[in-house]
Structure formats: C-alpha cells, structure tokens
Design goal:
Blueprint (H helix, E strand, L loop, with lengths): L20 H16 L6 H8 L3 H7 L3 H26 L7 H10 L7 H9 L5 H19 L7 H22 L3 H16 L6
Helix pairs in contact: 1-2, 1-4, 4-5, 4-7, 6-7, 7-8, 8-9
Length: 200
C-alpha cells in the first residue's frame, strides 16, 4: 500500500507544537470534505470534530464557502507535493505515472479527484472552484511535461497524458479499483510517448 497523501502535507505543524485552531479546522475539513463530500459535511460537524468554538470557526472562516476555497488550495499543494514525490520515487519519467497512481488508488482513503468531485457539487454556486480546479489541472500538465523527453510536441503530449490520467482517476473511483484503468493508461501513455508528431 502506498503512502497516504497526508504524509506530504505542507501545512502540518512541526512535531514540537500543537496545530493552531485554523489548522485544526482546515485539516478536519480536508478529511471530511474529501471523504464524505462538501454538501454532506455541515459546519456544526466541522466545529465539533476540530474541537473549536463556533466563534473561533467563523473568525478564521467567515463562511463555509471560504473554508471550501481554503480546502481546495490546501488540497492542491498536498496533492502536488505527493505526486512529484511519488514520480521521483518511481524513476521520474512517464513510466512512473502508473505506479504512482496505483499507490493512491490502493489507499484506503482514495475517493477520486477532489477537484472533479467539488466541481460536480458546487461549480454552479461557487464559481471560484472552476478557476482553482483549472489551476490544479494546469499544474498537473506542467508536472507531466517536466518528466517528458524534450521535444516540440511535449506540451501537447503532456496535455493528452493529463487528460488520460483524469479519465483513469474517474474510472478507478467508479470501479473502486484502478487495476483495469491503469492497464489501459499504460497503453495510452506508451502510444503518446512513441509518437514523434502526435496528431492531437
């Protein structure tokens, strides 16, 4: 089983201090929003599980929407750090993508892409999610581009690979297993990598 995303949390407090009230709220929101969904997680539950008062909660996050935005920005940094680390662990090339994703899919806390999930829940009522999600996906493209051999087509190939990765994440969430989706992803990545001039 692979390392959990939380192991790479950039905002985890140092071992010699307790997390601040804001950190407790954010860490709690990250766990509950990702696991159970944003709409299904009420403010009262967040307050109780984070062990803060209602006054403290609203001092740091004036509305639930403010917390949702903070959660997604935090999740982006968390996932980005994890993805880069696991790619490096597996060789830091295109062949590293599938074993990195396999670790995530096999983890007990895998619930798909937090950004795709959040868009499906709230894009119509919280448009800021669209821009945050676009930034996240653009960053994933850039990370993939960095591990590609240099070529004039690397940008287009990275976009295509990122799109295939997103489809694989969705399929793994639907199937509750990433095995079949990863078999297909390997073929797609190999085909894209072997094309000197992809017709994309």
């Amino acid at each position: 089983m692979g390392d959990r995303l939380v192991y790479y949390a950039p905002m985890q407090p140092a071992e010699n201090r307790s997390p601040s009230a804001r950190e407790r709220i954010l860490f709690t929101a990250h766990e509950l929003f990702y696991r159970d969904g944003i709409r299904a997680t009420g403010v009262d539950r967040l307050i109780a599980q984070a062990h803060v008062t209602k006054t403290t909660f609203y001092r740091h996050f004036p509305s639930k929407n403010d917390l949702v935005i903070a959660f997604l920005n935090y999740r982006h940094e968390l996932w980005r750090g994890w993805f880069i680390s696991r790619l490096q662990h597996h060789g830091n090339d295109v062949e590293a993508i599938c074993p990195a994703l396999s670790e995530w899919f096999d983890s007990d806390d895998f619930r798909g892409c937090a950004f795709i999930n959040s868009l499906s829940e709230l894009a119509g009522t919280l448009p800021e999610i669209i821009e945050i999600s676009r930034h996240h996906k653009d960053d994933m493209v850039n990370i993939i581009a960095d591990i590609l051999p240099p070529s004039a087509q690397s940008g287009k190939v990275a976009h295509a690979m990122a799109l295939a990765v997103d489809g694989t994440i969705i399929r793994a969430q639907i199937d509750q297993s990433g095995k079949e989706a990863l078999v297909l992803l390997r073929k797609i990545l190999s085909a894209l990598l072997s094309e000197e001039t992809p017709t994309i």
